[in-house]
């Protein structure tokens, strides 16, 4: 999931030329009902739910 989300977020032509960490990607799992998940590629290259706060260090 990390690779897919971060690759999509960094794709050429992303609206507005935003940084990958600022691009919201919607993911839908076939076979599951409900709305797509909105995720971001965080600064560490991991897919994280939009609105999630980074863990304290």
* Whole-number mean pLDDT: 85
How would you sum up the major sheet? 3 strands, antiparallel
Report strand order across the widest sheet: 1-2-3
- Quaternary organization: single chain
What does this structure look like?
The protein is α+β, with helices and mostly antiparallel strands and 57 residues long. The chain is 14% helix and 19% strand. It has one helix and three strands; from the N terminus they run αβββ. The protein has one helix at residues 2-9, and strands at 25-27, 37-41, 47-49. The chain has a three-stranded antiparallel sheet. Strand 2 and strand 3 (47-49) form a beta hairpin. It is globular and about 30 Å long. The mean pLDDT is 85.
In short:
The protein has 57 residues and is of the alpha+beta class.
Q: Which descriptors would you attach to this protein?
A:
about 55 residues, alpha+beta, three-stranded antiparallel sheet
SSE topology sketch:
Blueprint: H1 2-9, E1 25-27, E2 37-41, E3 47-49
Antiparallel strand pairs: 1-2, 2-3
């Amino acid at each position: 999931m990390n690779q897919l989300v971060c690759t999509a977020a960094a794709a050429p032509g992303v609206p507005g030329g935003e940084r990958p960490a600022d691009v919201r990607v919607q993911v839908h799992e076939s076979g599951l009902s409900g709305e797509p998940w909105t995720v971001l590629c965080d600064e560490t290259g991991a897919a994280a739910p939009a609105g999630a706060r980074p863990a304290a260090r």
